[in-house]
Amino acid sequence: MNYPFAKEFTEIKNELEKSQRVLLVAHSAPDGDTIGSVFALKEYISSFLGKEVKVTCSNALPQHLKDFLAGENVTGPEELRLSSFDLIIGCDAVERGFEKIVSSKNENQKIILLDHHTTLRMKKIKPDITVSDEKYSSVCEILYDFFDFYRIELNRKMAEFLLLGILGDTGIFQHANTTPKVMEIAAKLMRKGASISKIIRLVFKNKRLETLKLWGRAMERAEINPKTGAIMSYVTKQDLEELHGDAEDISGVAEILNTVSGTKFSLVLSERGKGRVKGSLRSEEYKNVDVSEIARLLRGGGHRLSSGFEIKGKLAKDGDGWKIE
Ligand SMILES: [Mn+2]
After folding, report:
1. CA of 171 to the centre of ligand 1 (A)
2. How many angstroms separate the alpha carbon of residue 91 from the centre of ligand 1?
């Protein structure tokens, strides 16, 4: 196997060995990949290297991951004493909240970023080591390479966490990032005891009735723009409050709308707190649209097939339709 990040892997291993206390940072509104990667790393750092390690995240663990994560916990950023960690590792979509938690570093601290988004950019912090390549399906795939590079025998827990991230970011092997290598890794993780059917049952077939009701409202409102091929809908603040919707629910709407035949991409606008409207964009490889370009025009970011942006304003009725004002 070839390891494009062999040099970085060596540096990461060095830093892990030198450190005493490690902090792992998941991105806000955490998904399967950020959760899978921080907890797989946590298991390695605590059980294999015998170091102290904590996981932090700006948001609570999402409801749909609760059963899968039984026994694991995250420490809220406000409970952390940042200066007590000598190594801080951000896993996945580090532009989503990493610098809110880690806004500065002292000279004894090292920072490592693991990501697979092209939009990775830091405003205040210069990381010591960065591994980021859009060719990877997920940060969990990067970590698999890291463990494989060092011939580390994965235990079942680590295999399950890595498979969670891969299943999440490939949409259970449906997205275009499902490469032969991803399938080979998944097979190897299964041999280490991870069960695809168990993860799918616990994580993906674990919907709340309210989620389906929220999807119902959004789907009822969906419209196709025949000129652009966009299929669009929206979710109001009221919908989210009444049905306790979260980011995962909204991304679910965008993904389902994107399956409507004849469409080029989907866009779901959702009203979030503090007078902000979030846009979630999805497309598919065969549709030949790079939604990250649309997101970037609106100062957002993401991948070619899955991106987002956030603008100030709120959704307001405009004749038959809606607008952001
Ligand atoms: Mn990811």
Report:
1. 11
2. 8
